[in-house]
Amino acid sequence: MKRVAIVHDWLVNYGGAERVVEELLKLYPEAEIFTLVYDEKKMGKIFPKEKVHTSFMQKWPLSTKLYTKFLSFMPKAFESFDLSNYKLVICSSSCCAKGVITPPLVPHVAYIHTPMRYAWDKYFEYKSRSGRLTQFFMDKWMPKIRLWDYVSSQRIDTLIANSNYISRRIKKYWNRDSIVIYPPVNTDRLTPNYKPHEDFFVVFSRFVPYKRIDLAIQACGNLKKKLVVIGSGSQEKSLKKLAASYHDVEITFTGRISDKEVMDYLQRCRAMIFCAEEDFGIIPVEAQCCGRPVIAFGKGGALETVINGKTGTFFSHATVDSVERAINRFEELEKSGAFDTDFISQHAKTFSAERFARQISECIDNTIMKLDEETSKK
């Protein structure tokens, strides 16, 4: 019998969720990976092809680009994986990966990045941004998806949430308790430079609507604060147009840059501005690793990674006025000497990969022990 199966939604781009899978592989190097679709060109160096098993959807035309359009087929795809020859199954899921079927005596641990947003709390938001055809199929298929999502969540032995914010959502939609283990952040490669900060703020993000980069641009534009915007994405053209409307303010777009260049900006900035409501949010932790405070939207995971008045400050509403008030409050705190570089950096290091590995190992060991005890009693 094989030892460990790791199940992940899809392997087409590298992000925070894939970092979790990478760390799980370090813990269980003999493990094999099961996933919906796999892009070898993008992911082959991190997740070797010989370790990866894909679903029947891999053979579909343009599957690694259009996979999100095939939500109604995903439950069947994950339930088609035969995991009966494994002793341990670990899922990393924000969609349907946690729905695999495992034998009764095989421990099934699921690390939940979020219950699928488009089925639950963000359903109407996604629907409003979709075309008529997509809206038609959402109305038709989503009730069945929700039912499957709930039923499949009941098959899992241990649920792990990536934040208290997600733990609450798991309880709300699946009526299951969960253990909170924050995801791993590569804190070792990010350090302060201990030089006086320079007079600019930073935004580092993918340019997509929910990141709300527009709020940071408008707030800095109105307050005449220098801003460096790092990243790229579908909103790049519109965001650059917005920035250009502030003729007397220096708002710079760097495009995609190396990790070393990102760290340099994070080390030198006054603070990072983070406007998204994230499930956890690795980027604010990375800024704090560099010893810099974060001006963050006071919802979601940021409330668990930023200490108000010590490692950053919050704005309560996703509005330009609220961001402006937070920047003004930040400057008051900055003048008073509230932000200590060492304290901020040490706080960020509590979210390290080493901590994640220790906690996830303990959780899995406890799950196996509990299942063994229950089995021995029968």
Largest sheet: 7 strands, parallel
Based on helices, strands and strand pairing, what is the structural class? alpha/beta
At CATH's second level, what is the architecture of the largest domain? 3-Layer(aba) Sandwich
Bin the strand percentage: 15-25%
The average pLDDT is: 93
Cα-to-Cα separation, first versus last residue: 23 Å
Q: Quick one: overall form?
A: globular
The number of helical elements comes to 15
The figure for the number of domains is: 2
Q: What is the number of strand segments?
A: 13
Helical proportion, percent range: 40-55%
Which strands sit side by side, in order, in the main sheet?
3-2-1-4-5-6-7
Radius of gyration computed on alpha carbons: 22 Å
Q: What is the CATH class of the largest domain?
A: Alpha Beta
Q: Please name the CATH topology of the largest domain.
A: Rossmann fold
The ordered string of helix (H) and strand (E) elements is EHEHEHHEEHHEHEEHEHEHEHEHEHHH
Low-confidence stretches: none
